[in-house]
Design a protein that fits this description.
about 60% helix; mainly alpha
Length: about 70
């Protein structure tokens, strides 16, 4: 538990602008997860969830090698 106490003390001593920059990626990620969840909830209402069809990788034909 000493580690948690030390970490919370370190966070509280950070300058506010630096703490904001450290937290920003987590805030953006949380917003993205929330938006994705809301979108899936809206799509799934009243309908069977759509299954993603497996797509075959495109075939690439290479010609004219070596000459």
């Amino acid at each position: 538990m000493n580690l948690v106490t030390d970490f919370s003390g370190w966070l509280s001593r950070l300058p506010a602008d630096f703490a904001f920059l450290l937290a920003l990626p987590f805030l953006v990620g949380a917003a993205g997860l929330l938006a994705d969840r809301l979108r899936h909830r809206k799509e799934g209402r009243g309908a069977e969830p759509r299954r993603r069809e497996a797509k075959a990788a495109p075939t690439i034909h290479v010609s004219g090698l070596g000459g």
